[in-house]
Description:
Layout: H1 11-23, E1 25-30, H2 43-52, H3 65-88, H4 94-115, H5 123-131, H6 145-149, E2 151-156
Antiparallel strand pairs: 1-2
Helix pairs in contact: 3-4
Amino acid sequence: MTLQVVRKPGDSDRIRQALRELERTETKVGWFESAKYPNGTPVAYVATIQEFGYPAGGLPPRPFFRPTIASEQAAWRTLIAQASRGVVNGKRTSFQAMELIGLQAAGDVRKTISQISTPALSPATIAARKKRGNNSTKPLVDTRVMINTLTHQTEIK
Length: 157
């Protein structure tokens, strides 16, 4: 049995154009310039401290970005392949494909943040929360600013 690939006129040009479009489109996930706490502190700064910890300040690491990347990498590759095929087939634009990937990745990071329960908060942190009327002992979600401002941005270069 012989397998024959039938190509339509212009297929190569369409595929090349789709690949160029994908190469120029970028999605970033995280906290951007406008994401700030009420006191003006950039959320990205706080998220970095939470991700890696700050031993000098007594803050242990509570990683959420790196574990999400590690656990979701295969699923994201599958999504990227599917979305890219859609671009090549003319069913979506590169912007739509990358938006889909950005939405998924940001949602996955948010889910990881919401599931973190260790290391436990210090007694001083719990006491400070209680003074503000928050009885939660769950890390990373005190004011919900970090989890609520996590987003993605897609742009064509």
